[in-house]
Amino acid sequence: MENYTLTINGKTQDVNAPEDMPLLWVIRDLLDMKGTKFGCGQALCGACTVHLDGEAVRSCSLPISQVGEGKITTIEGLSEEGDHPLQKAWVEHIVPQCGYCQSGQIMNAAALLAKNPSPSDSDIESAMEGNLCRCGTYNRIKDAILTASKSL
Amino acid sequence: MMPKLPFLKKEKTDASTPLSTGDRSEIFRASRRDFLKIGSLAAGGFVLGINFQCNGPKGELITFAPNVFVSIGSDNIVTIVAHRSEMGTGIRTTLPMIVADELGADWSKVKIVQAEGDEEKYGNQNTDGSFSVRMFYEPMKKAGATARHMLVQAAAKEWGVDPSECDTESSHVILKGGSKKIPFGDLVAQIQVMEIPKPEVLTMKEFSSYKLVGTDLPIYDVKDIATGKAVFGADVNLPNMLIAVVQRSPVVGAKVVSFNDEKALAVPGVKKVVKIDGPGLPAGLDKPLEGIAVLAENTWAAIKGSQALEIEWDLGPNQTYNSGVQLEEMLKSTASNGTVKRERGNFNQAKSSSGKVLEKTYLAPFYAHSTIEPPAAIADVKADGSVEVWAPSQHPQWARGAVAGALGIDVSKVKINVTLLGGGFGRKSKPDFVAEAALLSKAAGVPVRVQWTRECDLHHDYFHSHSAQRIVATLDGSGNLTGWNHHTVFPAIGSGLDAAPPSDGELDLGCRDFPYDVPNIRIEAHESSAHTRVGWLRSVSNIHHAFAISTMLDEIAETKGVDPVDQAIQLLGEDKDLIFAGEMVGDYGNYGEKIEDFPWNTGRMKKVIETVAEKSNWKANLAAGKAVGFAAHKSFLTYVACVVTVEKDAAGNLLIPEVHYAVDCGIPVNTDRIRSQFEGGAQFATSLAMTSAITFENGKVQQNNFDTYKVIRMPQSPKKINVHIIPSTEKPTGVGEPPVPPFIPALANAIYKLTGKRNYELPFKA
Question: pLDDT tens, B109-124?
Fold first, then answer.
């Protein structure tokens, strides 16, 4: 067990965890922030996506020991009022069905837009390929990303 | 005894028999105590409940306790209880919006609270079989109309006018003409002491006067979901809670001989190891599998601890099971005589006198549900023996019973809180994981969350059965279809080692209800055995039946040289109600509804076919040689036709650029959620058709995670999905499952146009 100091959503948090504990379980179990979801544990579905220094990462497969001093952002910290252009677009397009994968989808899309504010259809498809939605909201996700990109 | 199918709703108790839509609900004033138990409310509110008296499928009277509640607070907030589980269909919005609209409530001032699992209070809460809207449309209207009636009476008295001069709008009673209005909240004191009106004095709004019903009303939870605040199964945190991860029997029926937990207990954070006793064989539909659970302070420690367990298993009779071998045997069996389940005319005679015989076989694999939220449940067994549970359950009442059974306590001591479900598709109707949490909390003496990993989920699902079918079609000299002989075999839901044919209920799903006007029809079922846990998956056996039937019809049209759309319309014949009189061997279920109430109407099916053909430009695309495929299939009493377009990209990957659906689901309640179910249904069906399969070797599932059990991702997903909703004032029917079955054969038929090769086995090799 080691002590780690994390910067998460702009706040500093101290946790005590084994070095191989994935960031997902640090966030969910040790910090009790439940917006980030568990789906596969193998970086295959994207439900656990958070940002590490602005990059989308699969927190289920990122050991806490590798986080270092990187700044972590979760869905709870994406915007103060829940009004990130993607969150507004998600509401406008009524994207979710069950909603479980959507935190990961939004975080992945936010990282895409931060790098590429005007993505093409195929930019979106290749960026979002790692995020599964079993309900099948893919087309609305794409539409919402395009809507958000126009308001950036 | 074979358990009944989900939509027959008899798997637990007689009391869970479905309500028919022949509604005989009775409104009453609920006690404040009853209401306060289920959610927080503004003080001083008026509470309205409905007491249901509804017909079961056989017409017997079943009396249900309060089923749904409306409350109006003095703060003018209308609170509506959602008593069905939300797994992505939008039902948590769709039923309350009916109440709100009939009441004349301002939707922005409506609060929705989720009901706990309580059959006595709410009636049937089993959320599957696409029947929530079908069953509860009328009762919801009545709940809203009753409250509106009382509010109008109170305001009219206050104003000294006739009630007919008043109406409700935006949570106010208004005097027609607009000179006076009063908020609902200001009338609470008056209606609290008022008699509940008799149903015969109520007036229901016409569909045309609804402001919410029939619109794209956004789902209630959309903002919470987009901000990560929505609460799913694993999101509840209790003080002192331990997290459990379980190693379960690798082969269904396996029992633990011995285990060594030394290494597991050495993992930092691991607190306890507990054996769960499973039923062995038969495995049942509501019992935990045998397993060893590792309980830890956090999920990661529990996962590592469970990996460190050393378990010796007695694998039992299923250890030699190989699904590929069984599928071959099943296919062979379809060439023999099966049990006849429907007979019209004389098929053998038709065959001997036919000009041409087409005989084709169809195979489909096992499928897993693979909801992105794996099963998880939280239980807190208290010192007094009572237990409180939080679970993403489709069927909270079954879960309640399973928990009570596992702990040996009365159901009254079990409180089930229903969270949002991160996908269901039938998996989360089974309460095995909920019972696990209860057993483990009892053993540990603290609250426990049982957390399934993705590997747990894929290895220990209640799978959709693999299947083999053979269709023999006879054509006369002009190519007209004269005989139809459909053989089907698949391990039945809830079956085990003893050979058995599919149940009548499973045959009713798109096989026996073959609607076409063919003079000679014979449907035959064959026996097989189950060596895993078989359950229901979105659309159930409609999936493989529709695939076989609608690809065969395409082949018949090709043989005859006619357009398959024209052929379908011609084969449906004149507009009429089919009731299959005298043809079915054994009971015909009709999704739990009387056939007289919900007949199979050929006119409604023709209308969706004509609509999809027109909207998709079918004739022009066909003439232009585009790779388009068509299929039509009614399931869960909803009529659907589908056209799929395919093409290949430069790298040879199959793409689905366009899909058209036409749907007749009666009165469309939430049009956005109807469209979203069809959009998602096309995606779900694409996975079944193109990427997913579960196989068994030596009794064990061969797939572990999303790298080997593949579901489609955004680049492979169907692109433009157009949903054409037929305007209708017929009784509303559900849309959760009906999108899936016709999509798969429409895709198969389109791929054939593109490649010249027919697919007879799922998943396709395009």
Answer: 999 999 988 877 777 8
Boundary residue ending a domain (A77, A110, A130): A77
The Cα–Cα gap between B330 and B560 comes to 30
CA distance B160 to chain A (A): 45
What is the gyration radius of the CA atoms in chain B, in angstroms?
27
CATH of the domain at A52: 3.10.20.30
Cα–Cα distance measured from residue B363 to residue B357, given in angstroms and rounded to the nearest whole number: 20
Q: Are B423 and A100 in contact (CB under 8 A)?
A: yes
Distance CA B580, CA B594 (A): 12
Q: By the CB < 8 Å criterion, does A152 face chain B?
A: no
Question: First CA to last CA across chain B, in angstroms?
Answer: 41
- The whole-angstrom distance between B678's CA and the closest CA on chain A is 9
Of A21, A42, A132, the CB nearest to B372: A132
Q: Which domains does chain B have, with CATH numbers?
A: 6-226 (3.30.365.10), 233-317+375-451 (3.30.365.10), 323-367+462-755 (3.30.365.10)
Nearest to B699 by CA among B359, B360, B283: B283
What are the tokens at B541?
């056996």
Q: Do A139 and B454 touch (CB under 8 A)?
A: no
A76 vs B228, B424, B676: nearest CB: B228
Chain B nearest-CA distance from A152, in A, is: 18
Instruction: Render pLDDT for B393-451 as a digit per residue (tens, 0 to 9).
Output: 999 999 999 999 999 999 999 999 999 999 999 999 999 999 999 999 999 999 999 99
Instruction: Tell whether A43 lies on the interface with B, counting CB pairs under 8 A.
Output: no
Q: What are the Cα distances from residue B498, in Å, to B17, B314, B318, B328? A: 27, 20, 12, 18
Whether the pTM exceeds 0.80: the reply is yes
Record: contact A139-B218, CB cut-off 8 A = no
Distance (Å, whole) CA B171 – CA B163: 17
pLDDT at residue B18 greater than cutoff 80: no
For B457, the closest chain A residue by CA position comes to A40
In whole angstroms, what is the distance from residue B752 CA to residue B628 CA?
Answer: 9
Q: Which two tokens stand for residue B130?
A: 């696409």
The pLDDT value recorded for residue B122 is 79
Domain end residue (candidates: A77, A107, A139): A77
**C-alpha atoms less than 13 angstroms from C-alpha of B743 in its C-beta half-sphere:** 30
Q: Please give the tally of structural domains in chain A.
A: 2
- Report the C-alpha gap between B100 and B92 in whole angstroms: 13
- Chain segment B498-550, per-residue pLDDT in tens: 999 999 999 999 999 999 999 999 999 999 999 999 999 999 999 999 999 99
Our CA-based measurement puts residue A81 at a distance from the nearest CA of chain B, in whole angstroms, of: 9
Using the predicted structure, report yes or no on whether residue B11 has a pLDDT greater than 60.
Answer: no
Q: CB A45 to CB B706 under 8 A?
A: yes
Contact flag A101-B714 (C-beta cutoff 8 Å): no
Say yes or no for a CB contact (<8 Å) between A90 and B225.
yes
Provide the domain limits for residue A46: 2-77
The closest alpha carbon to B629, from B732, B747, B530, B503, belongs to B747
CATH number of the CATH domain containing A110 = 1.10.150.120
User: Exposure string (b/e) for B660-673, b if CB count within 10 Å is 16 or more?
Assistant: bbbbbbbbbbbebb
Q: Which residue of A has its CA nearest to B704?
A: A40
- C-alpha B42/C-alpha A69 separation (Å) is 47
Note whether A101 and A50 are same-domain residues.
no
ipTM over 0.95? The verdict is: yes
Choose among A94, A102, A135: nearest Cβ to B672: A94
Is A124 within 8 Å of chain B by CB? yes
Same domain, A69 and A115: no
B356-364 and B172-175 beta bridge pairing: unpaired
Q: Contact A96/B221, CB-based, under 8 Å?
A: yes
DSSP, res B373: S
Whole-angstrom distance, CA of residue B719 vs CA of residue B659: 8
